[in-house]
Design goal:
This protein has helices at residues 20-25, 28-32, 34-45, 88-99, 114-122; strands at residues 10-14, 49-54, 57-68, 71-79, 104-110, 126-131, 140-146. By secondary structure, the chain is of the alpha+beta class. Strand 4 (71-79), helix 4 and strand 5 (104-110) form a beta-alpha-beta unit. The longest helix has 12 residues, at 34-45.
Amino acid sequence: MQNRHEADEIITRAAQAGDVAAMLACDAYAQAHPERGEAVRAAVGKGQCQVAIRAGQMAGYALLHDDFFGHDFVSLVVVAPAHQRRGVGLRLLAAAAHACTTAKLFTSTNQSNGAAQGLFASAGFVRSGRIDHLDEGDPELVYVKFLP
């Protein structure tokens, strides 16, 4: 067992209705776009969301859907700025993989999002394809992780 400082411990679990306010508070995009909050509330209500708690604070969340061509899909990974580059994103993707009900887990990001691409590679995802014309001039890169 590793000897870690308690502040660095990251706990992941299924999100609960009482988590939504803290989840949205750590998501700058959600604060400016109410539709994000609606999507988060819906995902939490369906049991399709994992949260990460670090140092007793909401550190981030991931939404997992089961409607991507018959496979599970991580549609969103959000890590609060104060908790970025501390393993929270990796733990959220691991929690999503653990909650996944299919043999393959998919996710995607814009070509311009190098941080997400690096996170996906670190979490064991490989490039699976590309979708043009979602965001003009910035293709969506699709990734897959093959699960045991």
